[in-house]
Write a structure and sequence with these properties.
Mean pLDDT: 93
Oligomer: single chain
Structural class: alpha+beta
Low-confidence stretches: 449-461
Largest sheet: 8 strands, antiparallel
Helix content: 25-40%
Length: 461
């Protein structure tokens, strides 16, 4: 391979910069002991197609990385060709049609900057350094998502892809509709390489105002009751959450955040007033009263730009708001690592796209994140993380594929989809990638490797 093939860099295992490139495919500091045979960096659709074709000809599976923000490192697959799409980071915004075309390597922070210039918006992922490739393929639960179409994948209207044959194709509701369905939330079950997404945009809110208040962990029961009554009447344009974390003095705290996106500060304040007035009182001196603060989208993104550490991240969709808050508080009481959080996103409107692999959602998404620095603490922190999932199990309807450890717990992968969606994902993979060119974990993996080199065509392309 050469630059004339559209491939910018080719790193064989053992080369000088291979290990740095391998580790950069995983955002956190727990890096799986999986070693691709080659790491290929591309910056064009032609290069991506050439890399897939070359892998097929050499009898190797293909794995993909766009931003390297994976917690579980699913892109690292032994003896595969890992194609790095980070340089496919072009952004084209059409203000008139309110459609953007974005490469898989585009970071949320950069997309926000481009949309700000056009006075438009999109349900961006909560962290500025997450790339849209993995984010959208996994469904995408972003800022103001209840108002802007639900999961971000619902706003994907098309994509350009490279098939397992190395051929390029377009997918949409009209072209290759089964692949389009799988593209919207199929996560690691998707069986093609995306070189660009077409996404629907939204009018940018004039103002963003956050309501915040903090309580000691002892007040969790009253907050659970408050949340149960507050969630059903919440406006779509309010992003409501409860988070358990440690204060700077090491005490366990509970924070309430309600962020309103609207056409004026006055409208934001008016929308937030019912929540302000209904917040429970606390007798603790550690509690803070309700505060309203103007925010910008950039501030919201930057507040979630956490540095790499050692992480165990899990999610659970739950329908019982009060029980989820209470269970999360009980589990957080056993947390020991200072950076650990349990965050509950509370939704009054639960939308699942009609034609999308993303198929499970509920009023509460519980996100638990154990955060530590010492490798010697791995076993204890992973056990705590697993304990949170176990405690929530009686309440759990499913998991969110972008933030659950389906590597250590393979059964959680199919739990991210309804049984019908899981079956359809397998069917789409069998049709478009019958020989398993694109690697996939667990239930979506294809048996064996190539017995002989050679290109082939996928039906219906």
């Amino acid at each position: 391979m050469s630059h004339s093939d559209g491939i910018d860099e080719h790193l064989a295992r053992g080369s000088a910069t291979y290990e740095d490139a391998r580790r950069s495919a995983v955002w956190q500091n727990i890096v799986p002991a999986q070693y691709p045979a080659q790491i290929v960096r591309v910056s064009s659709a032609e290069g991506a197609a050439a890399a897939v074709t070359d892998a097929v000809l050499n009898g190797r599976k293909v794995s993909l990385v766009s931003g390297g923000h994976s917690y579980v490192g699913s892109s690292l697959v032994d003896d595969s060709v890992l194609i790095d799409l980070g340089a496919l980071n072009g952004i084209t915004v059409d203000r008139d049609s309110m459609i953007a075309t974005v490469g898989p390597g585009v970071r949320n922070g950069d997309l926000n900057a481009a949309l700000t210039r056009a006075d438009l918006a999109f349900p961006l992922g909560h962290s500025p350094t997450v790339a849209v490739g993995g984010y959208l393929l996994g469904g995408g639960l972003g800022w103001n998502s209840e108002q802007w179409g639900g999961a971000a994948c619902a706003s994907v209207i098309g994509a350009n892809v490279v098939l397992a044959s190395g051929e390029r194709a377009h997918v949409s509701a009209e072209q290759n509709p089964d692949l389009f369905w799988a593209l919207r939330g199929g996560g690691p079950g998707f069986c093609a390489l995306v070189t660009s997404f077409d996404v629907r945009l939204y009018e940018r809110p004039v103002e963003i105002v956050e309501l915040s208040a903090t309580y000691p962990l002892a007040d969790a029961a009253s907050l659970a009751a408050w949340a149960e009554s507050a969630v059903p009447g919440k406006a779509r344009c309010i992003e409501l959450s409860i988070m358990f974390s440690f204060d700077i003095d090491g005490s366990a705290m509970c924070s309430v955040s309600a962020i309103a996106f609207a056409d004026s500060s006055a409208t934001c304040s008016e929308l937030l007033q019912p929540l302000v007035q209904s917040l429970p009182a606390s007798s603790s001196p550690a509690a803070t009263g309700a505060r309203l603060t103007s925010r910008s989208m950039r501030e919201l993104l930057d507040a979630n730009d956490d540095p790499p550490a050692r992480y165990s991240v899990e999610t659970a969709w739950c329908s019982d708001v009060a029980a989820a808050v209470t269970t999360a508080a009980e589990q957080f009481a056993g947390a020991t690592a200072a950076g650990t959080i349990i965050h509950l996103s509370l939704r009054s409107h639960v939308d699942v796209p009609a034609e999308a692999a993303f198929s499970i959602a509920a009023p509460v998404l519980v996100f638990s994140s154990a955060v530590w620095s010492d490798e010697a603490d791995d076993a204890a922190q992973l056990a705590w993380s697993d304990g949170v999932v176990d405690a929530l199990a009686p309440l759990t309807l499913g998991y969110y594929v972008n933030e659950t450890d389906f590597i250590r717990h393979p059964s959680r992968l199919t739990g991210c989809f309804t049984p019908a969606a899981s079956a359809r994902l397998r069917s789409v993979r069998e049709r478009f990638d019958p020989r398993g060119v694109f690697s996939a974990p667990g239930a979506f993996s294809a048996p064996g490797v190539f017995s002989a080199p050679g290109a082939f065509s996928a039906p219906g392309a």
